[in-house]
Design a protein that fits this description.
Strand order of the largest sheet: 2-1-3-4-5-11
Helix content: 40-55%
Largest sheet: 6 strands, parallel
CATH superfamily of the largest domain: Response regulator
Strand content: 15-25%
Shape: elongated
Order of helices and strands: HEHEHEHEHEHEHEHEHEHEHEE
Structural class: alpha/beta
Number of domains: 2
Distance between the termini: 74 Å
CATH class of the largest domain: Alpha Beta
Oligomer: single chain
CATH architecture of the largest domain: 3-Layer(aba) Sandwich
Length: 309
């Protein structure tokens, strides 16, 4: 064989032995992975863009790998992403888990392998963490308080005894549970009649089907409280299709761009802004501080604000 060809073979062989990393990380420039839920959801697209902008502004401080799953319920894919990030040699994983319990075994393996884990958006289940012997900090908003504040805006438009219903997200997700509880807190305090709660799994189409059924079965329904804006969009379409625009109020949670026209014309009364463009940034900054200072991880509450017309 020619010397040049032998050199090419040797080069390829060496390359094949190297791990699949974006570049060589160092303690002074750690590699951070952002693992999100569905990238089909505008909220997580906004979260990703915010993280990328932050990294671009701090390119000398850390490297960033951004990824997410195809839909809100693909737990196996998200577990796979966590494992891929560990194999790529990241120093920290900032994760918005699709499920509050199911991701914990994979995160334990990551932590056992020396990877720092920071939990954002959807809080991991405290009891399951304790059973696994894990301490993972949560950086995010008080979802229950945010949902209650949104519900209180709605309550001012209704009167005691009015019938309302809640469309929650994935039932095993802590943030869905907390938003459902916050909506219920506000409605019960105002004396509303909660007809029931159904899961729209955070998705527009599923929420649309649920809202359509609720409206048909309950002609006196006055409001739909939706645990995210994707579902609020679906509910608004159902209200319009039922010819009940202006007769059934809707609230959401997330303040995504697609909701703004509906807030402006009154099809949606209110939503909560948990600052999605900064939520991952808060988690990344917390991870970088822990890595730099060797400090003890601690929970950090982030802001959430009510948005109306």
């Amino acid at each position: 064989m020619k010397p040049a060809f032998l050199f090419l073979l040797a080069t390829l062989a060496l390359a094949a032995c190297k791990p699949a990393t974006l570049s060589n990380a160092s303690p002074d420039k750690p590699k951070v992975a952002l693992v999100m839920k569905s990238l089909a959801n505008e909220f997580f697209q906004t979260m990703a863009e915010g993280a990328k902008k932050h990294q671009a502004a701090h390119a000398a401080d850390y490297e960033l790998i951004v990824n997410g799953i195809k839909n809100e319920t693909d737990l196996a894919e998200q577990v796979g992403l966590v494992e891929q990030m560990v194999s790529q040699g990241v120093q920290a994983i900032v994760i918005a888990p699709a499920d509050s319990k199911a991701l914990i075994p994979a995160l334990k393996r990551a932590q056992t392998g020396g990877v720092l884990v920071v939990n954002i958006d959807n809080k991991l289940d405290a009891d399951t963490l304790k059973q696994a012997g894990l301490a993972i900090p949560f950086v995010g908003p008080d979802n229950r308080a945010g949902a209650k504040a949104v519900g209180e805006v709605l309550a001012k438009k209704l009167k005691a005894g009015d019938e309302v219903a809640i469309i929650e997200g994935v039932m095993t997700a802590f943030n869905s549970q907390q938003r459902r509880a916050g909506f219920a807190d506000a409605m019960q305090a105002a004396g509303m009649k909660i007809l029931g709660t159904q899961s729209g799994q955070w998705e527009m189409e599923k929420a649309n089907a649920i809202a359509t059924g609720m409206l048909a079965a309950n002609p006196n329904l006055k409001a739909l409280l939706c645990a995210n804006d994707n579902m609020a969009l679906g509910a608004a379409a159902a209200v319009q299709a039922a010819g009940k625009s202006g007769k059934v109020d809707i609230v959401g949670f997330d303040n995504i761009t697609a909701l703004k026209p509906l807030l402006a014309d009154g099809r949606v009364l209110a939503t909560a802004d948990q600052h999605g463009d900064q939520l991952a940034v808060f988690g990344i900054e917390a991870a970088l501080k822990i890595l730099k200072d060797k400090s003890t991880p601690a929970d950090q509450q982030t802001p959430v604000d009510v948005i109306t017309k």
